[in-house]
Amino acid sequence: MIPMNEQVLKALDLVPGQTTDERIRDLAGRIAAGRRAELDDLRRLRGSAGLSAVNQHEGHDLPGMVVPADLVVLRSLRDAAFDRAVRETLREHVEQGARLADAEQTNGGDPETRRLAERMRQTRATERGWLRRTTATP
User: Do 64 and 4 meet the contact criterion of CB atoms below 8 Å apart?
Assistant: First the structure.
């Protein structure tokens, strides 16, 4: 989840300069704040488990992962085209994050990690609602 969250923040950082839609700006701000908080927890857990900080997924185009090519496309878009693209990027990210959190809940052995996964699962459910509201006509 650490690389997924780090990469989506790069896409979210583009929002203020690429859209005029306040709903998209609000959505991006909320998701970015959540991902930054999750990263603090995930990094702390990684450290306490003695895991390497090396990104094992570097260069991989995985579901829900924002890759450099995605950022190139997002940077080239503005307004409604950007809004559609960033919403789809976020939808994929949120859905994959929910799947990973569910898998940890089912298969994880560490109670603290499972508690974080449950919080992440709940967050992703809330974010799905936010995403649906940004596609509705204002």
Answer: yes
Distance CA 4, CA 64 (A): 7
Single-letter code of the amino acid located at 124: R
pTM, entire model: 0.91
Structure tokens at 77: 């878009």
Distances from the Cα of 75 to the Cα of 23, 47, 125, angstroms = 19, 34, 28
- Rounded Cα distance between 2 and 7, Å, is 9
Q: What is the distance of C-alpha 5 from the center of its chain?
A: 5
Structure-token match 């990210």, residue found: 93
Q: pLDDT digit string (tens) for 37-60?
A: 999 999 999 999 888 888 777 777
Q: What's the first-to-final CA gap in the chain, in angstroms?
A: 33
